[in-house]
UniProtKB/TrEMBL annotation:
Residues 139-381 form the Tyr recombinase domain. Gene3D superfamilies: 1.10.150.130, Intergrase catalytic core. The keyword Iron-sulfur does not apply. One of its GO terms (biological process) is DNA recombination. This is Tyr recombinase domain-containing protein.
């Protein structure tokens, strides 16, 4: 341990001694600061500002001093960054990003004439350990393929009151995750207005700007296509659930609707018959996937929407009820199932991205590597 790191940030030196600085020194200080900013590229400077802001927020939340920071505080910040995940369940901060964040904290301290707390062996050792750990494979939720999805939906009580009410909603939520490839937060945030009935395509869904994509303020459009069979028809699920919401105040009409549901007949108009709902039924800003309450005798549909977490829990419960072990799965399994099933059926990455809205092929390639090891693998050309 060098004296430099040992003393790290224990106290702020009393520099600069303000009253003794004359005007010339003040000017020279301004010049030197100006020169300093030229040593960093604009990108690096932006990254450092971001790093510092994030560190300050972390310290404020936990009641810690940010400037000067104790090396222990920096260690906690590194540990915090290491456990943050994105919506794929992947680490939100790469080791490179964490190193850059630390550089930002170091730069701020040095610029203020303080010792750099990030050089402490406790901090550098932690980052090295993390890099080693990250080199091993990340754990992702397993994908649910079409057969799995149909099995989960088949296990629900669709035409029984009161169970049929939440079954109608959950079936729709599952199709939104699988056919729509929506993230749970995106599915939970949909309103009736987000849906648009299309006579030729099925249902267009306007997905709001997602958390993963903050630069994108334009809503994306994904499609729930008419199913070849009513059993695989996501638009039918939209029609059933929206019709139920319209009838929810009235128990008798809800029951009549549920008992009348023929799961083997399209209610979406795909076969030329009159659809259950019309565009006018979607002209509302109320949440699409609303919370339901049910006891043994009755069911209610609440005004507020479900949360993404509730959708995740719902899927795991529905899997258990279908006799499946949900431990390696999550709501994201529907979205990764979309990618995996589509790739298995021969869709190329750019076609997959039309619906998943991934920015690059990289994510699709990760799914291929993990779940489709035979995809574009020369072992299939051996003539075995
Ligand atoms: Zn249909």
């Amino acid at each position: 341990m060098t004296p430099h790191t040992k003393l790290a940030a224990l106290s702020a030196p009393s520099w600069p001694p303000e009253p003794e600085i004359d005007d010339e020194l003040r000017e020279l200080e301004a010049v030197s600061r100006g020169l300093e900013t030229h040593t960093l590229s604009a990108n690096t400077r932006r990254a450092y500002v971001k790093a510092w802001r994030s560190f300050e927020t972390f310290c404020a939340v936990h009641g810690l001093d940010a400037l000067p920071a104790h090396p222990e505080t920096v260690r906690w910040h590194v540990a915090w960054m290491s456990v943050q995940t994105d919506e794929h369940g992947l680490p939100r901060f790469s080791v490179a990003t964490i190193r850059q964040r630390l550089a930002g904290i170091a730069e701020k301290h040095l610029r203020e004439g303080l010792l750099d707390p990030t050089g402490h062996r406790g901090v550098t050792g932690l980052v090295r350990g993390l890099a080693k750990l990250r080199a091993t494979r990340a754990v992702r939720k397993r994908p649910l393929l079409l057969d799995d999805v149909l099995r989960i939906i088949r296990a629900m009580d669709h035409d029984v009151y009161p169970a049929g009410v939440s079954a109608a909603r959950d079936e729709l939520a599952i199709w939104l995750g699988f056919a729509g490839a929506l993230r749970r937060g995106e599915a939970a945030a949909l309103s009736l207005k987000s849906m648009e009935l299309n006579r030729l395509d099925g249902v267009h869904i306007h997905v709001g700007a997602s958390k993963a994509d903050q630069d994108n303020s334009q809503p994306d459009v994904v499609v729930l296509p008419f199913g070849g069979s009513p059993r695989t028809c996501a638009p039918c699920a939209v029609h059933r659930w929206v019709a139920l919401m319209g009838a929810c105040a009235d128990r008798r009409s809800t029951m009549r609707l549920l008992y009348g549901y023929q799961l083997d007949t399209h209610v979406c108009g795909a076969d030329g018959s009159t659809p259950l709902i019309s565009s006018a039924d979607l002209d509302s800003a109320t949440p699409l996937l609303r919370a339901t309450y049910r006891n043994r005798r009755s069911a209610r549909i609440h005004a507020q929407g479900v949360t993404g977490d509730a959708l995740h829990t719902m899927l795991l419960t529905r899997m258990s009820e279908a006799g499946m072990n949900p431990s390696a799965y999550g709501f994201h399994s529907l979205r990764s199932g979309f990618v995996t099933q589509a790739r298995r059926n021969g869709a190329d990455p750019s076609d997959v991205r039309r619906q998943t809205r991934h920015k690059s092929d990289r994510m699709v390639e990760i799914y291929d590597r993990e779940w489709l090891p035979l995809q574009r693998n020369a072992v299939t050309s051996l003539g075995l």
